[in-house]
Structure formats: structure tokens, C-alpha cells
Amino acid sequence: MTSSLPSNGSGEHVLHIVGHVTEAVFSFMGPTTDALARSGFKQTVVMLDHPRHSHLRAKFHESIRIEPIQPGGRDLRHWFQMAKVIRVLVSQRQYAAVHLHGFLPWALGTRLGRLLPRQVPVYYSPHGSRTLTLLKPVQATLSSLMALTGSGKPQVIASTALDAQRVAGLGSARVKTVEAAVDDDFFHVERHEARRPLVVSGDPDDNHRSVELFCRQAVQLSAAELGLSFNWIGHIDPLVAARLKAANVGSFPLADRKEMTSRLAAGWVFLAAGSADEFPVMLSWAMALGMPCLAADTPHHRDLIQDGVTGLLYKSEEDALVKISQLIDNKALRDRLGAAAKQQALERHSKATLYQGILGAYARGQLPRQATLHTDEAEGRAA
């Protein structure tokens, strides 16, 4: 159900524009909006309300007004509807700032879409946008467009170091990295390895490619006669269920967060297969739990794992088999990597760290004095 549009009036109010709110996007956007709400800012979120991610909508701070847009199919009608809602919002209220999450919201929110007043401070978070990996000629065009915001160049707030590096390569924007956060609950779960060696993997979003890769690795690892069992945690549709069953992999949905966390914590090893376009949420959860993690050697995984220190990276399926064997046979290695992973997650991906970083980033981007005052408070809480 669509909430009523905000009424006219002054006040320090932030407008967020976002496409699909996946777990990866929410791991940054949820704590960000929570930090602003705790600092006294009013907020409105205009978002695509996909049924797959409807549970995340309920996790926003209770003070936030949500303007849900029903997504269409492959056409662009929902983007036109979103543009219409944004026009109404900016005609009714003067905003202290606008935060654009993802490339298409950026296109709508900047002067490319001619929707925002020229004086409003604009923040942009790419969230793994594929436009950041386009060919150089296309990047040059994108770089020139980055300056077409209502108030000049946007303040880019990247939720991963990889996003920050890619945006900085465009050479047209100020970039601040404020890394995505993990729910505090994950840091307090007691690890309990299953009796039998258990390899766990998963994906909080509908990623059939990740399922396919894990099933293939499960079959190969089973053939190595290591006595392993395998669990997958994530969205389970009929096709995914059939693939997992054929590979003799147990399957568990995400719906019950307490059970999901318990299943994850029972693993001897967390295996992150394939490549992620966004912040690898499930890998960050596993690290926060103190699990020893083995991940494919891809950019987003390298962003989280320092090979041999906070986890292990593999370059081929044969390499994965060797390193899985090492982890299963060496509890001291599992314990060392798990402890280091948890410590890194606490330092980089706690909500306290994000609160401090996001309020500082907003203050530098000319959000009113309120943010600066509460940045000091956030620093005190983080300490």
C-alpha cells in the first residue's frame, strides 16, 4: 500500500531514491537511514517494491516515509512512475539533501532527468552498478555526466572500497568510502560446528549462477571422499530445489533469520563461489560469525578477504579442493582464520563504524549543522 506523500513544510528532510532494495543495498542503506533518523532528520524513501525483497521494507526505521513503486516487467513504466512521484515530492518540499542509490536513480535524480532543484546537495552511492565497469569510451561519457547534478559534482559515498576505486577512476567526483554494515546480532552468535564436516554456502538474492557453481563444487568435493556434507542458504524456488537435491545439498530458506543464522554458524567452512556484482552479503555474515571462509578470487571477495589472514581465496576448482581439504583437516587454521575474519568484520562492518562514517560524509557534503553535531555523538558511541 502506498503511503501518502509528505505535506508542504520546512525542516531538515532527506530524500532517498533507490531501485530494487536487495540485501546488499540494504546493508548500506538500512543503517544509513537509521543513523540519520537517530540524528533527528526526517526521511522519505522512493523505491521499487519487489515482492522478493518486501521483508526489507519493514526493517527501515519507523519514522521513515516509504513511497513504494510497483516494478513492471522489462519495460520502463515503473521508472516513469518513479519520476512522477519524485516530481510531486520536490514540488511539495524543500529537501536538505537527496541520496541517489544506483545508476538509474542517479539518472532520474540528476539534471539528466531534470527532476531536482539546482541548489540541493546530492549524494550518490553506486552499489556495484555495472556502469562502473563499462568500456573506457563509455566511461568518458559517464564521467562528463557525473557533473550534471543540480548542485555541481555529486558527493559519492561508496559502500565498498571497490566501488570507490571504480568511481575515482572516472575522475569527476569526490569519493568517500563508508562500507556496508552487518547486523549486530551476527557478532554475538556462538559458533557450533556440526558433528560431520559441513560446507555451507548461500546467496540472499535470486542468483541461479551461484547455486549452479556450488552444486558443481559439491559434486566434485563429494567425489574426493572427504566425508563432507553441504548446505545452501538462500531463496529456494522449484528449479533451485531440484538442482540442490540432485547434488545432495541440503537447502534452507532465509525467511527465519534465527534458524538461518544457526544453520550458517554450524558450518566448518563457508564457501563463496562465483562473482558478485554487489557487496557479498552472505560472506560478510559468515565473517562476522567467525567462520573460516574460502572464496573465489574475484574483486568483491578480495575486497573483504586478505588471503591467508582473514580467509582463503581460490583461483580454480582444483585449488578450491586443496584448500577445503586443508581447512577440514586443520582446526587450528579454521579457528585462526575465523577469529581474524570476525575481528575485521567488527572493525569495518559494524553499524557503529557505518554511523560514524555516514554522518561525517553527509556533513562534508554540506548537509546542515545537525549532522555535524551528531557525528561527534556517533564517534563517542563507536569508542
What's the topology here?
Elements: E1 13-20, H1 23-38, E2 42-48, H2 54-57, E3 65-69, H3 77-92, E4 97-101, H4 103-109, E5 122-125, H5 136-145, E6 155-158, H6 161-168, E7 174-177, E8 198-203, H7 208-223, E9 229-234, H8 238-246, E10 250-252, H9 257-265, E11 269-272, H10 281-288, E12 293-296, H11 299-304, E13 312-314, H12 317-329, H13 331-349, H14 351-364, H15 369-382
Parallel strand pairs: 1-2, 1-4, 2-3, 4-5, 5-6, 6-7, 8-9, 8-11, 9-10, 11-12, 12-13
Helix pairs in contact: 1-14, 7-8, 10-13, 13-14, 14-15
What does this entry look like structurally?
With 383 residues, the chain is an alpha/beta fold. It has 2 domains: 202 residues, Glycogen Phosphorylase B (Rossmann fold, 3-Layer(aba) Sandwich); 165 residues, Rossmann fold (3-Layer(aba) Sandwich), CATH 3.40.50. It has 15 helices and 13 strands. The strands form 2 sheets. Strands 3-2-1-4-5-6-7 form a 7-stranded parallel β-sheet, sandwiched between helices. The chain has a 6-stranded parallel β-sheet with strand order 10-9-8-11-12-13, sandwiched between helices. α1 packs across α14 and α13 packs parallel to α14. The N terminus and C terminus are likely disordered.
